[in-house]
Amino acid sequence: MKISASMTADFGDLWHNLADLTVSGLTQGSIYALIALGYTLVYGVLQLINFAHSEVFLVGTYSSIILWGWFGFSSGAGAVPALGTVIVMLLLGTLMASAVSGGTALLIERIAYRPLRRKNAPRLIFLITAIGASVAISELVGVLTERKPWGVPALVRPSVQWHIDPRDIGLDIQPVDITNLQIGIVLVTIVMWYALDTFLNKTKFGLGIRSVAQDEDTAALMGVNKDRVIMLTFLLGGLAAGVAAVLYNLKIGTITFNIGFLLGIKAFTAAVLGGIGNLRGALLGGLALGLVENWGAGMFGNSWMNVVAFVVLVIVLMFRPTGLLGESLGRARA
Amino acid sequence: MRRTLVRTLTGVAVAAVLIGTAACAPSDKSGDNDAASGTCTYKIAMMGPITGDNAGLGKPILQAVQLAVEQHKAKNADKCVELVQSDDKGTEDAAPGLAQQLVADQKVLGVVGPAFSGPTSASGDIFQAGNLPIISASATRPDLADRGWTVFHRTLGNDASQGPAVAKFIKDSLKATKVFVIDDKSDYGTGLAEQATAGLGSAVIGSESIQQKQTDFSAVVAKVKTAAPDAIFFAGYYAEGGPLAAQLKSAGVDAQFIGPDGIKDQGFITGAADAAEGSIITCPCIPAEKATGTFAADYKAKFGEEAGTYAAEAFDAANVFLAGVTSGVTDRAKMLEFITAYDQPGVSKHIKFDDKGEIDKSVIVIWTYDVKGGAIVAREPIQ
Predict the structure, then answer these.
(1) The pTM is what?
(2) CA distances (Å), A98 to each of A93, A166, B152, in order?
(3) Residues B223, B306: one domain?
(4) The dihedral formed by the CA atoms of B53, B54, B60 and B65, expressed in degrees to the nearest 10
(5) Residues B194 and B262 in one domain
(6) CB under 8 Å to B228, separation ≥6 — which residues?
(7) Which of B209, B226, B246 is the closest to A16 by Cβ?
(8) Checking CA distances to A322, which of A72, A76, A306, B253 falls within 20 to 30 Å?
């Protein structure tokens, strides 16, 4: 067995591509952030790492493609439809993905976690069930799709909106073209995060979630329906995952049954990086992880991308064990 | 008391999960769909990605071997051979275990495969130790023939032919002067990329590696965009090749995309959507319509689809084993002798193995294919 690895820190490469890598890092990071919202919410309320959340995301990707197929849009169809049609399709696709993802999340909660909660099962059992649910769903999807990749219809044709040339201000950095898709992904993520944040902080339901996160027994004594709150938490995470699913579809263009696993791990890492149980942390962690990954890939080469990402995670946690933003859902404002 | 019970059950459950995950990969389905199972004295095996990310490349091989076994049974009912399917999913993890199982089953006289270079590399020693002859229809990594395995053979040209041919094609036919080479760090990809880079010489302006199962290639795309090549050569499989081509196109990189036999599958077109259009694929595999005899028609009649990548080569490989059984071979040692002496025309080329198990260079042809209109269409072979 031969072990060959070459690691050369190429600052020049990183610097030259800095603008491009930053833009793609923010875009990728946004998708991580949206999925991380699901992990962080459920952890904040239940202290449970919902490993099945990656499959909640996965079913969202498939369901949006199925919906677009109903309207006659399939991959490789060629011409991009008119703007109005595209907007309608995207909205419908997002609704479908969010509905299916949210529904799946609720289903998992009902079937996998609630019986365990009733029996006060130890934490480890929840973890095993979560992993089991994750594998079961992804394998089921694999069987149903014969493990073949599915292509995404070309609904959004990337068109350059912004051309930024840092050379104009004297920096030796390659120019970057920012496309409508990239701007869209980052904007949608921020809007979604803001909506969730507002929901948690300004509405009665949000208050219920925060109170259960803080102390579930006292919350129950205060008249909060714990089961409903938990269902709502899963639903919210599922909705965010559904939106992430559509964005992922548009960005990557092809899906298979096993994309959930690595994405889920990275999103969970992002949530931990930002501070698990903290919504702002999920957003920050996601964006940070995306940037670190891409800069690392630019500096050390693509093969080192994942290594760099996780090494950074370990280093951050060494100095700040509660993550970058630290606070949790229950203790302070999310 | 109850807590102890819960803890014990937890321990058992955890152990079961761990054991289950560790043992879950290898699947060894025996029994041919059309042969009466259990009545045949001997077996041959097909080892390759029957499931997994790159299963599209294993299917034509499996089906071609099934066709060969069925045709053999029709003519030699008394010496019928049963087909064993070994699913290595195209990766090295399950290959050694599957190889052990095949070696242990003394009825197995030969293996068509492993299909991919990685599993071949990982299991070759085991086949050698069990003296079980293998003929791969698709593993192209050149140094597989240099590992000293007397049991190893292949019915196609390796990447020491494909690599230079690709380089020649890119420089002479496409007239590209700036080439970016991307490999996927697999045994197959790195071997081929090395060969192609050596042939391209100074035309290579940059190289990068991706990982298998990677879906987001933004960092690589950024590097390619900066380098601004005329042509991009991707040495890898279609599971990554498709999304990579798609992301290159949507980033505005308009270089000619060229890939090898690893992307020659409908899965590349699905994965790349309209970015696949206009890509060029090279392959040591013969187009179905150019195979001699009635192979293409028989394949289509039995499976309802055109013969895919390496089907003809697999058909030839299977027929070498089957001819051995017909001529009275009853054990592996005699099978190995039979293969060494074999000198017959096959449907893809004339089959005769040299002392390293390779096909003579003079009959090796590297074909090129266009992706046109959502299908892979043959064009001229590289001279």
Answers:
(1) 0.78
(2) 8, 39, 52
(3) no
(4) -90
(5) yes
(6) B178, B255
(7) B226
(8) A306
Label residues B265-293 b or e (16+ Cβ within 10 Å = b). Answer: bbbbbbbbbbbbbebbbbbbbbbbeebee
Nearest by CB to B243, from A17, A154, A253: name it: A253
* Residue of A235, A218, A196, A52 whose CA lies nearest to A130: A52
Residue A251 lies in a domain: yes
- Asked if B208's CB is within 8 angstroms of A302's CB, the reply is yes
Task: Write the DSSP symbol of residue A167.
Answer: G
- Rounded to an integer, what distance in angstroms lies between the CA atom of residue A210 and that of residue A219? 9
Phi, psi (degrees; rounded to nearest 5) at A269: -60, -40
Residue B250 burial (CB < 10 Å; 0-12/13-18/19+)? buried
Name the A residues in 117-146 with CB < 8 Å from any B CB.
Answer: 121-122, 124-125, 128, 131-132
- What are the pLDDT tens digits along chain B (383 aa)? 677 777 777 767 676 666 655 544 444 444 333 344 456 889 999 999 998 788 889 999 999 999 999 999 888 888 888 999 999 998 888 999 999 999 999 999 999 989 999 999 999 999 999 999 999 999 989 899 999 999 999 999 888 888 999 999 999 988 999 999 999 999 899 999 999 999 999 999 999 999 888 888 888 998 898 889 999 999 999 989 998 998 898 888 889 999 999 999 888 888 887 788 889 999 988 888 888 889 999 999 999 988 889 999 999 999 999 999 999 888 899 999 999 999 999 998 899 999 888 988 888 889 999 998 888 888 888 87
Does residue B2 lie in a domain region? no
> Are residue B141 and residue B164 in the same domain, yes or no?
no
Strand partners, B27: B87
Does B276 lie in the same domain as B297? Answer: no
Angle in degrees, 0-180, between the axes of helices A226-252 and A83-108, rounded to the nearest 10? 140
Judge whether A326 lies within some domain: no
| Same domain? B117 vs B19 | yes
User: Where residue B19 sits, what CATH number does that domain have?
Assistant: 3.40.50.2300
Distances (CA, A) of A291 to B174, B229, B247: 37, 26, 18
Q: Which residue in chain B has the smallest CA separation from A27?
A: B218
CATH of the domain at A190: 1.10.3470
Residue of chain B with shortest Cα separation from A257:
B53
The Cα of B258 is separated from the nearest Cα of chain A by a number of Å equal to 19
Per CB-CB distance under 8 Å, the chain A contacts of B221 are 24
Q: Which of B14, B121, B212, B223 to mutate against chain A (most A CBs within 10 Å)?
A: B223
Contact B266, B377 (CB under 8 A): no
Q: Report yes or no on B88 lying in a domain.
A: yes
Q: Which domain holds residue B307?
A: 11-158+289-352
The Cα–Cα gap between B214 and A64 comes to: 22
**How many domains, in total, are found in chain A?**
1
Query: Which chain A residues touch B227 with a CB distance below 8 Å?
Result: none
Q: Say whether both B258 and B116 belong to one domain.
A: no
Pairing mode, if any, of strands B179-183 and B231-235? parallel
Does residue A291 form part of some domain? yes
CB contact under 8 Å between A301 and B271, yes or no, is no
**ipTM here:** 0.73
Does residue A97 sit within a domain? yes
Q: Are residues B28 and B154 in the same domain?
A: yes
Q: Which two tokens stand for residue B153?
A: 């053979």
A329's tokens: 């859902």
Q: How many domains does chain B have?
A: 2
Q: What residues 83-112 of chain A have any CB closer than 8 A to a CB of chain B? A: none
φ, ψ of residue B381 in degrees (nearest 5): -75, 155
Task: Please tell me what DSSP assigns to residue B40.
Answer: -
Q: Do B153 and B34 belong together in one domain?
A: yes
